[in-house]
Amino acid sequence: MVAFLLTAGLVYWWMSQPSEEAREQLHAQNVSRGIDAAKAGVLASVDASLIPIEVTTPDESTTAAGAEKEVEELKVWTEGQAIEFEDKLEKNESVFAALQKRGLGNRNIHVVVSATGEKFNFRHSRPGDSWSASVDAKGNILRFRYQTSPEDIWETRLQADGTHICEKVEVPLEIKQTVVAGVVTTSLWQSMENAGLSAPVVGKFIDVFSHEVDFGAETRPGDRFALVFEKIYLDGEMLRDGRVLAARYITPSKEVSAYWYETTDDDQGYFNGKGKSLQRQFLKSPLSNVRITSVFGKRFHPVLKRWKMHNGVDYGAPTGTPVMAVADGTVVFSGWKGANGNLVSIKHKKGYTTHYAHLSYIPKSIKRGVSVTKKTIIGRVGSTGRSTGPHLHFAMSVKGRYIDPMKVDFMRGPSLAGQELVRFDEMAIKPFGEKMDAALSKGQQHTTPSLVAAEDAFGGDDLGEDETAYP
Ligand SMILES: [Zn+2]
Fold first, then answer.
1. How far is the CA of 307 from the centre of ligand 1 (A)?
2. What pTM was computed for the model?
């Protein structure tokens, strides 16, 4: 069932892509018409409330159960009668349509949907989302509730002044810390799953160390791991795993640790035991699944037939492959530029600029002055300008000078220093380090089974205030 839902989700995601692009352009037009970006976002969300949620699934409506449901009489609002509705969004049903079906007027629906759209983006609606509404005798929606998960609920209420205001409902979540340590017996993934860790937690663990350890090549039976992570409960029931707060991996030749930490100026991420950031500010490459066809440096130019400095890295990829911004930044150039063909240049922090050349397509929204975040699709691979075939020429410059994107380790976030390092030691290294040490040493004593899983000794049912407060 889970696999089915995931597949359905992916299919939905895939299907929603082209319209997403169209929506982006519409969004860009709205902005250029002088409507501020926030308002345009709400408008897009409201538009989305009108779009039926299409999911490619086996057609269940032809089955007996489906047919029976069709026959079931639908409660509708009638003039002079207050009524309560409660239902789930159906396949191929938009939020708007769900309310219309209950006999409510478009105007009454619209005010509620646009107020809700201020806080919840209806593009994220999915079949099975729950909703409820209280409607008065005049057809006004007094209260509208939209729920996408046990912890994600939005409620819109009619105010005394006649307007509607939406708020995300505070759900009393309880966070417990769990420590797990174990020994690699087969593969790392398998060993961690055997230790009772969920796939998202294992994934996070591997991700945290992705630049420190080559798990494919370096993992050996006998290596040890430990981690502290959150388990999130709602009404006493385990809802999901939360953040990985600390992690350690030990091989005969090296030991790496990572601690999640939020700095005093609201930066957050993983740092090693010395306060060095384990996070990269830049993606390793602007394409996923890359094949490098030409590196930075002097080369014989295939078109010009002479030796020339190659000021970037070439990635071979089919025309149309999405190109992502490697870091947050501002677009400083977008359009045709001679031999570069269609080019996008993005300025980042600390004087770094990245350039993406020979693009076949640049979205209309990617224009000079626009802010982009890491992984925003800024164009598609092509062969425009001076190019022999589809590829991405990716270059990086610092204050006008080109540098080799592959060689520099500037990609790391800043290291912690001074008072921040002291605070990091107290808030992360000491408490989490101790827990991992304890779990690891217990694990060594008990060789079979070779793992220890313990609910946090300090936490338990009676969770200390300071524990939830940080991190
Ligand atoms: Zn190139």
1. 13
2. 0.57
